[in-house]
Every structure is written in structure tokens, then in C-alpha cells.
Write a structure and sequence with these properties.
427 residues; alpha/beta; UDP-n-acetylglucosamine1-carboxyvinyl-transferase, Chain; 2 domains; 30% helix; 25% strand; globular; binds ligand EPZ
Length: 427
């Protein structure tokens, strides 16, 4: 099990190339199941979850061809061809490792008329049910049965038919499954209270490139006019706004100056606004987004929310940064019920953070001290790396397999801009 050692105190400076977005890729890859023609995705990040999804697609009978990217593998290409669906089962072994596997549900029911997908189960940050995914498919005529930890979904004989899906609250994954089912349903589907995240827009743009017809892309009410079939396409994955936001926090917490090449400001308005409020200098250029800070940061109060609000996936990273601000910040996590697993670990580094329910009061301290800490989930891992970059002495982050799910070659990217960081591979 690998770990990462960081010796803090260096100001980061230089350019970090932002990779393709993990949370876009994980909903784009299953789109290939919707057609028998080849679909080619460009700008793929080198992440554990991408490899896992590739194996899941193979399990369904799709062929996958991966071509290396530039500069040692950044920006890989994958061509997927699901000429026929050999299996409509997504076994527990896949789904337990990567809950995004549930995103094959909509495409399989739409293309093959059925799917048997293991229930994903909870994870470190919360229970994370899929009831809204199932209700969306039922609204399109699917019959759903739950048995032995699996969801069995069947389309009616004539296949899925258009309907109205009204989500009681925003769900990114449920919106994604609803879209991937509706594009092959007979007739019109209206999706109300749809998620508006940039990754949803990327999904819609890819589906349209495959021949789908979707109105109001990027808005809360989507209208899908179902098609008989979709075709292949070549699609470039959007840049990762959460990776970019994470490295922006690295610049701020170290008093550094980083150019986040390829980052898109429109994907990150709420994050950039809070960085500015915390005292960082943020400049958008043709190359990307430059973030710089010199000296102490100011406290800010943040409440996570669905896009365009402040993303829950940036809460842990901001908490590390604010642990060293001059004053007290209040963070409120409104999306997941248990997304403060990083707090006790930051506390062991000297942070002064008090959690009460969904809120965390972060009292800025003068310094953090390096320690051996345990990663518990993807974004918590990044918050520990960020704290280590600014802490006195050495921080040893264990269980970095969490990190490898969402950050492509993190130690290479941070090392190249001056971090004293190394990966320790233990067998
Ligand atoms: C996606 O997860 C992202 N993952 C998450 O990123 C992100 O935090 C989340 O959206 C919110 O933006 C991927 O895109 C692969 P949701 P998802 O459905 O789709 C509840 C990361 O760090 N809910 O929007 O699972 C759910 O429990 C990951 O990159 C139901 O109750 O999130 C949560 O409380 C973490 N029933 C809330 O809704 C459902 O059927 C939002 O979840 C579905 C969700």
C-alpha cells in the first residue's frame, strides 16, 4: 500500500497542467454502451477509476483500446466499441470498488432492455443511496426489482418510453443515469431539478455529438427527444475543475504562485470567489488560471451546494487552507452527511477544528506540524497533502490509493513546482 511523504515549507511556483475531469470521464465512458459504433474519448486522466471502468466495460462485452498521451502519458485516448452487449450484469466486485459503476444502469437498460447492477453500498462520506436513479428509470417505464443486493431493471417490451422525471433534490449521478436512459427512450422526456454541474453539460454535449437531441443543456429542466439509435463520435473530456481547485489551494496555502494550465474559470466561479475572499490573487488568462498568495490568508464562511454553488468536493481542501488563516471560518457541508473524516487527521497536525453536525468551525492557527496521517477518502486525502505542504517538518500520508482515484500523478505535478514530496511504494 503506497504512502506519500511531504516535507513542508516550500512556496510552490510554476505551471501545473490540469488533467481531464474524473467526474466527467466516469459518466462519459458508459455512453459508449449506447451505440454499436466506436466512441473515442480524448484527454483521459491516468486514474485508477478510469482503469476500473475500462474493465467493467469489457465485462459488458465492449472492446477498449487505450493510446498513451503526450508528455509521459497525460491526455490519453480510449476508443470503446460496444458492438453488442455480452453481459448486462455489473457484479458487486466492480461496484464495491467504484460506486460510479452504477452509471452503467441507464445505458444498459436503454440499449439492451435490462440490467443487473449491484447496489453500490455506502462509502466513507455517507450512505449514498441510489433511490433517485431507480425512480428515474421507473418514470421511463422500467420495472425495478431489488434482490440479494442487486438492482434488476427491465424495460417494457417496446423499450423505454419518454416520461417526466421530477427530482426532489439535485443528484448528479441520478441526472446522469436519467439522461443516458432517456436518449434512447421512445418520445420526449422532461427532467426537472436536474443537476447543472459542468460534468452534466459535458455528458449532454457528448450525447448530442452521438446524435441525441437535448434542450436547455446546463439548465435545471432538461428536455430529451429520444432516438432510435445513437452513433459513434470523438469527444474531448473537459478539464478537472476539482483538481484545478485543489492545486489553487496548494498555491494559497504555501504562499506560492501557480498557473493552472487548461483550467476553465466558468467551471469554478464559486471556488475562485472564495479564494479571492480569502486573500489569494486570482487571474484568468488564455492559458488557464493563475493563483498566487503572499502571507496570511483571511477566514471565509462557506456552505457547500449543488452547482453553481461551492462544490462539496472542494470542502476538505479549503478546510486545510483555512486552518492557517488569520481568524475563524465556518464551513457547512450540505450535500453529504459524513464528509469531515479529514478533521481528526488535521487535528493531529495541530489544526483547531470543531465539528458540530453538518458544520465545522475552523480557528486559524499559526502553524501546522507534520505527522503520520491516514487518508480516508479521495478529497480528505488531498486535504492532508495540502496541510503537509505548509506544515513544519514531514507529513506521511498513508493509504494514498484513495488519492490515486482522483489525482493524476500528484507527486510529479507538485514536485515539478517545488514541493518536497515523494511516493513510498510498499510492495
Ligand atoms: C457525484 O456523486 C460525484 N461523483 C461526487 O464526487 C460529488 O461529490 C457529488 O456528485 C456531488 O457533487 C462522481 O461524479 C463520480 P449525488 P453522486 O447523487 O452522483 C444523495 C468526488 O470526490 N442521493 O449528487 O453520487 C446522496 O447521498 C466525488 O469526486 C440520494 O439520496 O452524488 C448525497 O447526499 C465524491 N439518492 C446527495 O444526494 C440518490 O439516488 C448528492 O449526491 C442519489 C443521491
Amino acid at each position: 500500500m503506497d504512502s506519500i511523504k511531504v516535507r513542508g515549507g516550500n512556496r510552490l511556483s510554476g505551471t501545473i497542467e490540469i488533467s481531464g475531469a474524473k467526474n466527467a470521464v466516469l459518466t462519459l465512458l458508459p455512453c459508449a454502451l449506447l451505440t454499436d459504433e466506436p466512441v473515442c474519448f480524448e484527454n483521459l486522466p491516468r486514474l485508477a477509476d478510469v482503469d476500473s471502468f475500462m474493465h467493467l466495460l469489457n465485462q459488458h462485452g465492449a472492446s477498449t483500446m487505450l493510446e498513451g498521451g503526450h508528455n509521459g502519458g497525460f491526455g490519453r485516448k480510449m476508443t470503446i466499441k460496444a458492438e453488442r452487449i455480452a453481459s448486462t450484469v455489473a457484479p458487486y466486485d466492480f461496484v464495491r470498488k467504484m460506486r460510479a459503476s452504477v452509471l452503467v444502469l441507464g445505458p444498459l437498460v436503454a440499449r439492451a432492455g435490462e440490467a443487473t447492477v449491484s447496489m453500490p453500498g455506502g462509502c466513507a462520506i455517507g450512505n449514498r443511496p441510489v433511490d433517485l436513479h431507480l425512480k428515474a428509470l421507473e418514470a421511463l417505464g422500467a420495472e425495478i426489482e431489488l434482490a440479494a443486493g442487486y438492482v434488476k431493471a427491465h424495460a417494457p417490451d417496446g423499450g423505454l418510453r419518454g416520461g417526466t422525471i421530477a427530482f426532489p433534490f439535485v443528484s448528479v449521478g441520478a441526472t446522469e443515469n436519467a439522461l443516458m436512459a432517456a436518449v434512447l427512450a421512445r418520445g420526449e422526456t422532461v427532467i426537472e431539478n436536474a443537476a447543472k454541474e459542468p460534468e452534466i453539460v459535458d455528458l449532454c454535449n457528448c450525447l448530442v455529438a452521438m446524435g441525441a437531441e437535448i434542450e436547455n443543456i446546463g439548465r435545471a429542466t432538461l428536455v430529451v427527444h429520444g432516438k432510435e439509435r445513437l452513433g459513434g463520435t470523438t469527444y474531448r473530456v473537459m478539464p478537472d475543475r476539482i483538481e484545478a481547485g485543489s492545486y489553487a489551494c496548494a498555491a494559497a496555502i504555501t504562499g506560492g504562485d501557480l498557473m493552472l494550465a487548461g483550467a476553465r474559470g466558468d467551471d469554478m466561479r464559486a471556488v475562485l470567489a472564495e479564494l479571492r475572499d480569502a486573500g489569494a490573487e486570482v487571474e484568468e488568462t488564455g492559458e488557464g488560471i493563475r493563483v498566487a498568495a503572499d502571507g496570511a490568508l483571511k477566514p471565509v464562511n462557506i456552505s457547500t451546494a449543488p452547482f453553481p454553488g461551492f462544490p462539496t468536493d472542494m470542502q476538505a481542501q479549503f478546510m486545510s487552507m483555512l486552518a492557517l488563516a488569520k481568524g475563524t471560518s465556518l464551513l457547512t457541508e450540505t450535500i453529504f452527511e459524513n464528509r469531515y473524516m479529514h478533521v481528526p487527521e488535521l487535528g493531529r497536525m495541530g489544526a483547531d477544528i470543531e465539528v458540530s453536525g453538518r458544520s465545522a468551525v475552523v480557528k486559524g492557527v499559526d502553524e501546522l506540524v507534520g505527522a503520520q496521517v491516514m487518508a480516508t477518502d479521495l478529497r480528505a486525502s488531498m486535504s492532508l497533502i495540502l496541510a503537509g505542504l505548509a506544515a513544519k517538518g514531514e507529513t506521511h500520508v498513508l493509504r494514498v490509493y484513495h488519492l490515486d482515484r482522483g489525482y493524476e500523478r500528484l507527486e510529479d505535478k507538485l514536485g515539478a513546482v517545488g514541493a518536497d514530496i515523494e511516493r513510498v511504494s510498499e510492495g
